[in-house]
Design goal:
Blueprint lengths: L7 H12 L1 H5 L7 E10 L10 E9 L2 H22 L18 H6 L12
Antiparallel strand pairs: 1-2
Length: about 120
């Protein structure tokens, strides 16, 4: 009976929407941060409420302090939304590599040479 189900699609959609407030409400306006949900997987047919939904995404920030804020904010928001919907949530957050910062001085020092293999003269 659909009216007795906890719909993970609805809960996950609300999580995605709520995660967008992290950068605007939890990060200082002069700091840079990105929270992106890039995958949303749930169910495999058109007429059945799925048992679960998997969200995947990425976070980016230049500052280590801001990076430290992102995981707890995601966990807090996802837990709160799922609790409100009666759903359960598991978060697997991987800290990968820090942002690459290109320095202008080094950029000037890198010059393309004329003898690049495959380049027509």
């Amino acid at each position: 009976m659909p009216h007795l189900a906890i719909d993970p699609i609805v809960a996950a959609a609300q999580v995605v929407n709520s995660l967008q407030t992290i950068t605007s409400r939890n990060v200082h306006p002069l700091e840079a941060a990105v929270v992106s949900v890039t995958q949303f997987h749930g169910g495999d047919t058109w007429n059945v409420i799925p048992e679960n939904v998997v969200l995947r995404g990425t976070t980016r920030a230049f500052s280590p302090t801001v990076r430290d804020q992102l995981e707890p904010a995601i966990r807090r928001i996802a837990n709160g939304v799922c609790d409100a919907c009666g759903a359960e949530m598991r978060l697997h957050y991987e800290r990968r590599y820090p942002a690459t910062i290109q320095f202008r001085r080094r950029d000037r020092d890198c010059r393309c040479r004329g003898d690049i293999p495959g380049r027509r003269q």
